[in-house]
Amino acid sequence: MLEFTGILQSESEVPLYEQLYCSLSAAIQNGELKQNAKMPGKRTLAEQLGISVNTVDTAYQLLVAEGYLESRPRSGFYVMQVEQPIQTVPQSAVAAPEPSVQWKFDLGTGGIDPSLFPFRVWGRIQKELLYSRPQLLLQGKGQGDVELRSVLADHLCQYRGVTCRPDQIVIGAGIEYLLGLLLPILGSRLAIEDPGYPKVNRLVKNAGMTALPVPVDEKGISVQLLAKTDANAVYVTPSHQFPTGVTMPVGRRSALLSWAHEKEERFIIEDDYDSEFRFDLRPLPSLQGMDRGEKVVYIGTFSKSLAPSIRIACMVLPKPLIQPWKERYGSYASTVSRFEQQTLCEFIRQKHFSRHLSRMRNRYRKRMQQFKAALQNCFGKKVSISGEHTGLHLLLRFENVNEQQLVDAAINNGLRVSGLSQYSCVAHTKGACILVGYGCLAENQIMPAANALQQAWKGLV
Amino acid sequence: MLEFTGILQSESEVPLYEQLYCSLSAAIQNGELKQNAKMPGKRTLAEQLGISVNTVDTAYQLLVAEGYLESRPRSGFYVMQVEQPIQTVPQSAVAAPEPSVQWKFDLGTGGIDPSLFPFRVWGRIQKELLYSRPQLLLQGKGQGDVELRSVLADHLCQYRGVTCRPDQIVIGAGIEYLLGLLLPILGSRLAIEDPGYPKVNRLVKNAGMTALPVPVDEKGISVQLLAKTDANAVYVTPSHQFPTGVTMPVGRRSALLSWAHEKEERFIIEDDYDSEFRFDLRPLPSLQGMDRGEKVVYIGTFSKSLAPSIRIACMVLPKPLIQPWKERYGSYASTVSRFEQQTLCEFIRQKHFSRHLSRMRNRYRKRMQQFKAALQNCFGKKVSISGEHTGLHLLLRFENVNEQQLVDAAINNGLRVSGLSQYSCVAHTKGACILVGYGCLAENQIMPAANALQQAWKGLV
User: Is 0.80 surpassed by the pTM of this model?
Assistant: First the structure.
């Protein structure tokens, strides 16, 4: 019989019955206690271990409840059959180190400046809601809280010319999440911009669909070339094409809408990212607003206007897609915490958001102008700069330099930059075009970053 | 020529150039200004409207930038071609009313008691993080913040016997979200529990997979019947089978693991929901812990232990699925806001969560006992009650009553209840079995709710 002494530690915080339970279940699992073996009587074991009979009884009852032991009337406790699953080497719960890169100058295109975040107001609203509305702990609507959707319908109408009712709006934890749900109801062939967002390509692939790249020219995606594909739907960024920064003019928009209206199953996904950051003039209203609710799925995010880590995006469904959406996803719970939804709702309703946007626009405009000046100072006529009208990144074109070599040299100098080719299906061959974001570039980093890029470039020419 | 006077309002908050831009773009869109029409000169229009030339120039430049006008050198501004998209009746931005049911007694199975939420501690941690760690505004790891994953690995090990490294953990905004991503990498045929969660059926359907219902007996899902299907994977709730409340004993668990180990492509999804609320004895450790990381995907949620509206769930991937997951979803952003992740992380790390859990367990146990006593008081031997060991709902069985009629009568009496058949593929015919949750049942509602149910039942016998 098994030796039971020494398995209990009286100083441990774990209750004695639990220590006993753990030892015995382990002994049964690893075969030390064999099937049909009779367990020692409760009194005997209690005496042997110097613990109370009650403690042993609790452990035995637990082992019975969980199928390790069976209690045979007027006989005692017996070990039951436990099949041995195939065992592997136990893992440690210690964190494996995850790689992380430290950039000297983060010129990524998704960065923002955390110091512009409205900590005080956001924190106040958050706190007020937590203490005043405990019912926000209960489950809300799957599409998002009605209050937020109503406020967003007004906001999108006023700022982006979007025409919708709150019941067309779906709130979700990021654009990827919303697109992941949307794509399967749009047919099997999605046209995408080339160059464009690599993430969209990945989403299309994961949805088991085919991505059809369509070239972007100086007015955005080519509708002529789009019409030559057999796409059911198209994903576009008309306010600020990623990565080229082109804004689609109204004529091209009309042509795109006409393409969609030619067939019932055709739809347009309008990703309105970065439309908040138009520095020169008022942004062109959304494509969705030109269409009035039949063909355009409008998506927007608060990743840049608030923070990338606050996961709130919204989607406006056109009328023909509301029913298919409800059929598939009507029972899904929302992916955004209600306190966060309501904080954003109050933030917009109390006009803090519009003030925040205009403050950010001014700060980023100034930073862009300084960065542009610094780059012109470093490179003179060797660089051609574009993308200064909208969004938080610039495109720099250099002649007589290999793009990949320039990107590699910049990365070696601690600069996080990317080349236009990274976003393209067809590599362009003449010169280099690199993307430099300034969202999280501090004022005192502007000159050093431009200088570091100049150094990288000088090594190649 | 168009009459331009009267289109500007000097008292408006909208800048004059924007008002002019809006009127002109609308006139071009609706055809009042025809293609190729020459626009009035800037000076002429400025005089006519009593505004500055600069204002007119800004509006014209904007219209040019957006493709409404073109500027012909030494000639002036001309209206460009704008195709007319098919227009529909504009919608109002007013909220359409959404239906909402008011229950007299909410006995749903997903409810919790908001008054138990640790408002003070949660609010304090949230506030401290917001002010002290602005870098949490920046994008975090797609799988979730490393700190939270490390704390969860420890917590799951201690409380649920889960053996994993932090890099096996994925944090996501709810179980539906995580399952929605997981299912496509598990093959095409998923066995599900019958009776079971209807939501899983919907997820399987949305993933384009086949759901294979396998009967549940008094030990959980039948492994014998599972082995007769050609399922690649199986979804189970071994801690607290939904809806029957059965806990899977260790023998059945071993058999299930053996089934999975028979073929390389087989996996088990262990949904560990409600395992926090075991009232009699220590919960049986997770299936994942018996297997040590090869075959079981463990999923858990904080919907009930914190609140349904706080959207944090976690998933532990077995080693063979880590690479497939990274390939598909490695570029996806997290769906949980980082401040919320870190609040939970600190809440667990500072031991508030374990205290909160034991407080909740005591409160809910007491409530369950009171509710059970009230029901026994009302129904005597006419009811057979089960499900009192785990979770926040009871199963009530009545003989000689039609289940659907009882559910309908209860709903008419203002009780939110459901019948077991609602969760089953095969309707059971003998008597009625209804589910009554007590998570959000206030103490003073316990007797009235039992009485209301008795009234509904009396009308049928």
Answer: yes
